[in-house]
Specification:
Number of strands of chain A: 0
Largest interface: A-B, 22 and 30 residues
Order of helices and strands of chain A: HHHHHHHHHHH
Structural class of chain B: alpha/beta
Helix content of chain A: over 70%
Number of helices of chain A: 11
Structural class of chain A: mainly alpha
CATH topology of chain A: MetI-like fold
Number of strands of chain B: 12
Shape of chain A: elongated
Distance between the termini of chain B: 30 Å
Helix content of chain B: 25-40%
CATH class of chain A: Mainly Alpha
CATH architecture of chain A: Orthogonal Bundle
Strand order of the largest sheet of chain B: 6-7-8-3-9-10-12-11
Shape of chain B: globular
Order of helices and strands of chain B: EEEHEEHEHHHHEHEHEEHHEEH
Number of helices of chain B: 11
Oligomer: heterodimer
Amino acid sequence: MADRSQGSLVARRILRNPIAVAGLAIILGYLFIAAFAPHIAPFDPTAQDLSRSFAPISAGNPMGCDEFGRDILSRIIFGARTSLIIQFFSVCIALVIGVFLGALGGYFGGRLDEAIMRVMDVLLAFPGILLALAIVAMLGPDLRNLIIAIGVYSIPQFARITRGSVISVRQNDYVTAARAIGENQSSIILRYVLPNAISPIIIQTTLRMATVLLTAAGLGFLGLGVQPPEPEWGTMLSNARMYLRSAPMVAVFPGLSIMLVVLGFNFFGDGLQDALNPRLKE
Amino acid sequence: MTPPLLSVSNLTVHFHTEAGVVRALEDISFSIAPGEILGLVGETGCGKSVTASCVMRLIPTPPGRIVSGEILFDGRDILSMSDEEVRLMRGRDMAMIFQDPMSSLNPVFTTGFQVGEAIVTHEPSIAREPLRARVLDLFRKVNIADPETSVNRYPHMMSGGMKQRVMIAMALSCGPKLLIADEPTTALDVSIQAQILTLIRRLQREEGSSVLLISHDLGVIASMADRVTVMYAGSIAETARVRDLFDDPQHPYTRGLLGAIPRLDRDQGRLAVIPGTLPNLMNLPQGCKFRERCAEALPVCAEKRPALAEIRPGHEAACHARTGR
């Protein structure tokens, strides 16, 4: 082990796991496509050409065209960008608020913990998508509200995981030792407790990226997500539903994209879980 | 006589658990003079560590509850201080070395950073370079080989003995007046034990600080302490100067303990044992807690709990058979 840091050890374990590497490759490809969408996409994703509606797969349109003659490949590429924005910001909201609440409850315990966790229980008692649905229905369907809705419904998961992890880390001798040298509560939480409680949170973040994408697509499918003509995979799927018999390919590609990215995050998340598990010492 | 640095009087601590009230400490009184090493001995569960935690105010409340008593440190009442005052006192005026160095360091930071952190906590304005110099100096003081490299090492790269040295460096970082060492060598192997004890002793002499040394090893106490306090089931059985305690123990429990030590210098056959087991701290008997295991028990022992009384100057024991009452 010598001078090797925890980080490089984890990286090595991931690279040795083919499933995790596949997941990582999918995620990196997805990030690349989302970042450089305008440079990669052959057409404007919203440009209509009714003469080419339902055009079949060809060299010019590798995935064909949809009902308004828009290039599906371009819409998929720009859809990646929309999905990534939704994933990133909603997970950020959930991560920041959830970790904060969970750490507070787990570290201080007692009534504060009770209060926080009961609120989380209430949030968890709603079926996730229904909660997001209610929030979007209340705030109105657009990208920002979709992000808020998905973020809020992901808070309890982060709060619970953080709390559990913090409670087990809190009992370590080095936390008592930190108190014994006169550290104040906030540095004990930030420097001693959270860094040691972070592994399950990282794993949860990765896996949550997948769930969040599915939820966003689901809400899009129900017409409560990103509104057309903005390209979003769930919304695209929903529109394609009407032409499922006459032009099935229009539905296949958004569906495949969702599946692939969700799979990528899940593969990587599982690999990360194995790599971060301290009981898997080499 | 100079006033004591630490004086604990009539401290009683209970823990409220689901099974009932655990009477962890009952009417504990002792004191430590400036520059003195007081040994605190007793078997597992007798309240040594709870005593230390109370002095640092580190016992969790609830479930713990300080029922009564007073802890005076440097003339200030620790139990009535605000949380912030206690926090500022910890590490600066009194510091603690823990039993298990393996788990007492934060695994995510380098050891040098952690020792620095202990200083920064109490001197937030200290600049980078003086801080580094002081950390290196502390590493040198506790005999860590190659301090320049060691400060950049993570705890998992160090041996138990090295980690305990880091803990000691951390404890000494702000020059505390009182050092509490809670079984500092229990988790280490014997050869390292001696080194760590010698180190604590040497630093105690150099810094002139007082030490509360907790141990269940009478050998460690004999070689280190100036005075000894023997605890039994949450009470103090006997307090005396080291020589007096080993030469002429008063309390039957202390005699039993000393009789149970194997000796190389004479052939004694089977080791003596103290009959019976510890009383349940949730359900203590009336009268003396040691009565059921004591060969010298008197009728009065079943009725009245003996108080600590002076038998000769500086030697106190809590035993009806000794005080003759």
